[in-house]
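Students often ask why we bother predicting the structure of a whole assembly rather than each chain alone. The short answer is interfaces. A chain on its own may look different once its partners are present, and contacts between molecules only exist in the joint model. In this exercise we take two input lines together and write out one structure for the complete complex. Read the inputs first and try to guess which parts will touch.
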Amino acid sequence: MFHERLRGVAAALALGLGLGLGTIPAMAGTPDNVLVIADKIDDIVSLDPAESFEFSGNDMLNNIYDTLVELDPNNLGPLVPGLAESWSVADDGKTYTFVMRKGVKFHSGNPVTAEDAAWSLQRAVKLNKTPSFILTQFGFTPENVDQRIRAEGDKVIITTDKKYAPSFFYYCLTAVVASIVDKKEALAHEQNGDMGYGWLKTHSAGSGAYSLKLYKPSDSYILEANKSYWRGAPAMEKVFVRHVAEPATQRLLLEKGDVDIARKLTPVDIEGVKGNSDIKVRDEVRGRIMYIALNKKVAPLNNPKVIEAIKYLIDYDGMANSFLKGAYVVHQAFLPKGFLGAIDDRPYKLDIEKARALLKEAGVGPFKVRIFVRNDQQRLEMAQSLQNTFAKAGIEVELRVGTGKEILGQYRARKHEIYLGAWGPDYPDPHTNASTFAWNPDNSDEAKLTGILAWRNAWPAKETTPLVEAAVVERDTDKRRAMYEKIQRIHQKVSPFAEMFQAIEQVAMRRNVEGFVAGGSIHSAFYWTVKKN
Amino acid sequence: MSSNTTTLPRDGIARRLWQLAKDLLRLFVMLATTFLGLLAITFFIGRVVPIDPVLAIVGERATQEQYEAARHALGLDRPLIVQFLIYVKDAATGNFGTSLLTAKPVLEDIGRVFPATLELATLATILGVLLGVPTGVIAATRPGTLTDQIIRILGLVGYSMPVFWLGLMGLLIFYGELGWVGGPGRLDTFQEMMFESEVPRHTGMILIDSALAGAWDIFRNALSHIVLPAGVLAYYSMAYISRMTRSFMMNELSQEYVTTARVKGLPEWRVVWVHALGNTLVPLITVIALSYANLLEGSVLTETVFAWPGLGLYITNALMSADMAAVMGGTIIVGAAFILLNMASDILYRLIDPRARAAA
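Now the answer. The structure tokens for the assembled complex follow.
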């Protein structure tokens, strides 16, 4: 008897669900004028260009703000005009003049002036957030920046503290921290003299191809096309970026056509979608270098022979051809491919016998060491591979696993033994990596140069520091290239760093999407170049 | 049922008011102590974990100076106890601080993510109860039969299958292959943009807000998106509710009053569904409330697979990034949900169970 009632309940339920579902319009694909991207965006800390320093934030801001000089998305490398239509450096090698483009407006409708440009750069220096060093390395301080960076009519005049390679200075001005912000708009939202910082953390005031329409942290953001963009209105009227943490979910969305681009697929997913004729995959080398570093404070890691031996105990090809396939390629120098002076030398390969001989020469018996690594699948697999190969030469490895922030904290405090991690360039000039991997002006604990990798590993870098300082002021580009090549070859031999891999990004997208650029090894993503066929 | 009605004190309204005031006071003290305990535990655990919240803001490249400046701005250079007192004071006024990651007040963040979880958990619980209770009752009335075994196996599978796997399989089949339901996320892209721009926000729950606005396209789309994650979670809570219902019912059905009712010639469905089931309601409500509260915590795995921007993901993200203000704010909301649900089930007992009513 009661089954009848039950049947009634079941029928009602089925009916209820059916009513809801039966009438769903079958939405095939995304609208033609909207670009939908599945990505992971939970690394964003701030949308203020003076503070943003994370991959996802920079991807967004690269499409909202312009800089004085820019990079060509179709040919990443040479400089192209941005908000400055021309620029020059005086004979003294220190005074730079930028002539502003005329007739450009911010999203607010305010005209873009030299005053906005000068103020934006001053602002980044004065706010002194993490990426500010990209500008302050030219001698700007909150006190002197009003004199050193100033507007004169339609020109911005900038004076550096000494002569640098001009390309070095220009490339730094393409970084997000040098974005030109709408002064009037930012000041309209100023609180307690913060130059609009509190407001800009979650809003935008730029002149770029898109303005920020909606931002839901760790969830999604929507950009809206700037119809009067000075390069011409972008084809995609809206860009919708959704945070989808799970790669398998990203893949499903892409296969169903509910997103146009999926940026965080695993190599396995990439293989899976390659057979799908609706989907294509674009490979780009990115700037991230995966390396291990040995703390010179820890014996016997301070022994040059031991350091050399360890470089022969890494299974570079084995890792790159197995679990890192599609994510990394072998790269043994600190400048990523794509940078001025990058080299392709690969002096090391897995050679257990050689490593054993070197350890014997060093007079070091079997020893124990800890590798500090953050709790991340790929890195753990690398660490396990190292554990395996190190053991063959009598080095017993214990993995010290923690969250990213925890391991980083120990690394910055010089409390690690061997660190396994990644480094990405900050601006598209070789000095960015040279100044951290190969430069250390003061190796004392008191110096607390926590941002510099050579310091973190207690390596005085006596062999390379003067060369790095010479290369950054060399004004002849060919000579400069040769200098960086030389620095890297010395670095490969003597430094406690073993660079292992360079990242590649495999972007999967629907076949009708054209023109998406993830930014290569030196820049961030471009959305305004995208078209759909 | 027993009929020993207690005599209420009749000596004046004053005494009853006094009793009420005492009850309220006791409740308030209990709530305040629970919250304070919750605050203290989350706060000190948050400070003990070897994670540096300052690094979360300044990033890897920061110089020592920038690091110190950020540390000072967060107030982390003050003594621990002072930090705690400030925190309690702020929390008492509803200020849970600003999230490091989102740069927004924690309360505002939670106001954004909690409705997503609430919507999902509520639908899942309704489905779980609608399926779990009847199957439990059926299993109890025919113990040992094939029906009982099937229900038990279904329950066991639901209980032991990882939600993560179940969710992905569900997506692959019902979204990927069959196209019966919407994909991950709360809405399709287009509908989401419509929702953001057209629909006024009342509750943050898309089903309710879109229905209030009469935006039925969005409602249907939201329903097609929520069905699968809610179904997965419902399966899990159904398995639990069904097993508990079965065991409560087995107990009731062996009681003498059931035999009496049968002897009296009552129809079997009445004996089972009214008399016996009626008496299992009290423990059942506790089970349902607990299962609901568990879902309200936000199922991190489900939210990850379905790209569902809810509380579970928010707290986990915050924890991973050492965003302690957000972690504590989220924990307190979860704690509050637990406490409120406990109170609600307490009140429900009194309505349902005459004994409890009398004891009060």
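Check your guess against this: Chain A has 19 helices and 19 strands.
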